[in-house]
Write the structure tokens for this entry.
Amino acid sequence: MTSPFAAALVPLATRLRQRESVVRSVSEVVLRLRDSHAGPAFEGARQVTLRWINDRAGRPLPSDAWSGHSFELEEIGAQRVSAVALESTRYWAARLDDADRIIAQRVWTTEIGLGDAGDGTTVIGARLTCVLRGGDLPFERSIPGFIRDIVEQWPAELDAFPVSGTPSVAERYWEVEQLVSLLRDPRRQADVIVASLPDGSVDPRETAVDAGAIARKTIGAAHVFTITGPASFWLSDLVGREFSVFRQAVRTYRPGFNPEEDEPFSHPLVLPHRIESWPNGGPVAYEKLLVSQALIRSVSSRDSERRMPSFASVRKTAAQARMMAAREAGSSEDQLLGLAEQEITELRASLDEDRKTYDGLLQQAEAEREQALAQALQAQETNNHLRQRLRNIEAQLAASSRPAAQVEIPTTLDGFPGWCEHHLAGYVSMHNRAYQGVKESIYEEPSLLYKALLLLRDHYVQMRREGGAERKSAYDQALRQLGLEDTPTITGVSAGQKGETYFVRYAGRRVMLERHLKKGNSRDPRYCFRLYFFWDDDSEEAVVGWLPSHLDNSLT
């Protein structure tokens, strides 16, 4: 029951919430520009930006604006516009608060930074923020339109790779090599979205999504490629089939891509039939999701301030520069005092803006964290339910009179990933690093790899799930039949001395390969067999991180 006192506070709480601003980071773009036939990039990009601001300011910009000087526009009927020019470092920054034309009390704040990089190039950045008072309404993420206008006139680079607002095409082998180089670049900060064509096709119109529309809407925030059917085979050769994309599928490669360490689901792949039936609109709805995810990631960088200083920090730097110049020029105490008071006023305004923005972004982060935790818990409950149903079905099949089908043991490692997917799913998870080890294998008895994995599936996993002396005895007997031993790898301290050798990234965490099956004591990879794995309590599966060669230790 709600008390009379609590009920009386409801209108007050509602009014207080209406005074609060909900701040949402929308997008962030940072590009490097080069001079072109259109003229110097710095001056040209500033003029394009000023024209864009002028169209939205509500009043004509002052003459100082067009000359590249600092200015403030706060006239009645005008939108709030400010610009700061730092002559010593040739840096220009501007901010526009653009009131939404449909939704009251919603403002789109655009911060722009333009700087001379000192190497003949110009760096331009644009940060878009949505501020809404008294509620939180959905919005469609976008980038400021002047960015596209600038890229059309001056060559632009993102992550040191050319971008033009149209998809890059990977058709020739050297183009696929360029793509892989971009994917593997540890400095890359933007997503790479690759849309593939059907087998044998070189027609870019045959992608499952409109790659051109995605490239236009994410220009400066993501790289967009189309890859032809024949070129997909080269991509598979260079990064592995599990990380490739083909037959009209679409894959998003996140920053930090490392096919030797990553798990395939870390770089989402969506098949064409799933795109066609995507909820609420099919391919168009999926395209919106790709754009939204790319722009969300553009504002999630931890070094956002280093990539593009906030307008408040630039204004603070300008105020300090004015004070220093006045002292050097021998200004009077009254003049210095006036400048100090002006700086204090601007700093107070900046601190207030920063506080509101920080509070809003903190609330957003907390809400997203709570939502992510709730989704994770829900997914875990669903997985537990499905896992139990699967075990019930397996138990019913095992209790039936039908004999179990004999698993065929290949004599070569050709098609190893496909065999694992078909026979181990739900029991043994193969880390991509294990597949890399198999690719390099020269072990003399390939069939032992398959037998050892089936041993884990049929005996080790059952022993860990159900326990009991009978299961343990069956596992030990199966080991003896194959001439294998199950022993710990090395201690945690020793493993740490070997860097990442004995660790893998799994489900977002760093996990040690704590056990291994072994056969033979030779260090010759033709005769030495090792299978390194660990037990995952969440999925109740054995996770294989490397095979079949010996990992480095103090003896090697």
User: Anything to note?
Assistant: DSSP finds 17 helices and 20 strands in the chain. The chain has four domains: 17-156, 159-300, 310-400, 416-546. Residues 333-399 form the longest helix (67 residues).
